[in-house]
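Local shape tokens:
==================
===
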Amino acid sequence: NPRELVEQGIERYALQVFDRDAGSALHDRAGGKPVRFEEAGGMLYAYAASLADLEELAGALTARDYVLRQTNLEDLFLRATGKGLNDAQ
């Protein structure tokens, strides 16, 4: 079942930042929070089990620079391969 794969293989929430420059300071803002970062396809992704941790990071961004969502199979693929679905090989 795809939902079970996602639940067992990756954090529950994702903060997808479209502007890499805007997201560059997020690493420092995360501090000691349990947030994992990935870069792919010109975007920065922050993953966490806690929605509140990602909402706090998103507070430093403008609304057009990001989307905050639940993770999906594409996120799991990125974690497993290190590449997004649309990245060149």
Q: What stands out?
A: Residues 30 and 46 are 10 Å apart (CA to CA). Helices lie at 2-9, 20-23, 26-30, 51-58, 73-81. The mean pLDDT is 88.
